[in-house]
Amino acid sequence: MSAAISTSHRTRWEERYAGGPTPWDTGQTPPEVLAFWASGRLAPVGLALDIGCGPGTNVRYLASLGLHVVGLDIAYAPLQTGARRLHAAAPALAERGWFAQADVTQLPVHGANARYVLDMGCSHGLPPRLRPAYAGGIVANLAPGGYYHLYAFDYIARPEAEAEDRHMGYHDGEVGALFGADLEIIEIIQATPNPNPCKWCLFRKPLQAPTA
Questions:
Q1: 81-85, Cβ contacts within 8 angstroms, sequence gap of 24 or more
Q2: Whole-angstrom Cα distance, residue 148 to residue 162?
Q3: What residues have CB less than 8 Å from 186, skipping those under 6 apart?
Q4: Which pLDDT belongs to residue 168?
Q5: How far is CA 74 from CA 17, 44, 58, 70, 201, in A?
Q6: What integer pLDDT is reported at residue 159 of this predicted model?
Q7: pLDDT value at position 90?
Q8: pLDDT by residue (tens digit) across 12-59?
Q9: Which residue has the higher pLDDT, 14 or 183?
Q10: What is the average pLDDT score of the chain?
Q11: Which of the pair, 157 or 112, is modelled with greater confidence?
Q12: Structural contact between residues 202 and 153, judged by C-beta atoms closer than 8 angstroms
C-alpha cells in the first residue's frame, strides 16, 4: 500500500467542507492553546505550523502573537476560506500567515525548524498505517527546544461508522509510542469529551538528540 493519503480521503474532506456539517470548526482557539502561550514556556517568535488547519482560526491567532505561521490541510476549500478571512479580518497579519494544501503524511517541507506545531484533531483520523510517516514529518520539522501540541480523540470501537472512521482515535499509549523516542512528553491530559473521550498532549523536542 502507498504510504500516502488516498484520493478518496482527500475528496471526502473537500465534500465535508463544501456541504457540512463541520462541527470541529468552532471559530474559537481552544483554552488549552491559549493557556500554553500564557504560560511563557515559549516566546512567540519564529515559525509555527498548524497541521490540519481547516479555515485557519488558529493560524490567525498564532500570527497575532507575532509568529510566522503556515497552515496545512488536505482539503483546498477551507484554505481558500482561511486566506480570505485572514486578509479581510486581519490584513496586517497577512504577511505572517500562509496556507498550503498538503498530505500531512508527506509534508512538503523538511527541517523547517518550527518552534511550535499544533494539531487540533487531524492525525487521529489517519489510518494507523500512515501515523508513523505523519510522526516522522512532525519530528523532522520541529526545532530543538520546540513544542508539539496535539489534541486527539481516544480510540473507541465504531462498528457502525463509515469504513474510514472506524480507525479514528488513538489507543492507550499509542501517541507516546509514536513520539516518545524523539520527543519529551511534557504532559498528557484527559480532556472533556467532545463528543468522544479525548486528550491534549504536549511534547518538546530536546535541545540535543537522544543518545542511543
A1: 81/17, 81/55, 81/56, 82/53, 82/54, 82/55, 82/56, 83/56, 85/55, 85/56, 85/60
A2: 30
A3: 147, 202, 203, 204
A4: 81
A5: 11, 26, 16, 13, 22
A6: 56
A7: 81
A8: 778 777 877 777 778 899 999 999 999 999 999 999 999 999 999 999
A9: 183
A10: 89
A11: 112
A12: no
User: All 3 cell numbers of residue 50?
Assistant: 498548524
C-alpha cell read off for 18? 463544501
- Report how far residue 170's alpha carbon sits from residue 89's, in angstroms, rounded to the nearest whole number: 36
- Extract the C-alpha cell encoding 102: 498538503
Around Cβ 49, how many Cβ atoms within 10 Å? 29
What letter represents residue 187's amino acid? Answer: E
Mean pLDDT, rounded, for 51-74: 95
In one letter, which amino acid is 37? W
Quote the DSSP letter at residue 45.
-
Region 135-149 average pLDDT:
98
| Side chain identity, residue 149 | H
**Residue linked to cell 542511543:** 212
Q: How many CB atoms lie within 10 A of CB 175?
A: 22
Q: How far is the C-alpha of 125 from the C-alpha of 165, rounded, in Å?
A: 7
Q: What is the DSSP letter of 46?
A: S
Bridge pairing between strands 68-73 and 97-101: parallel
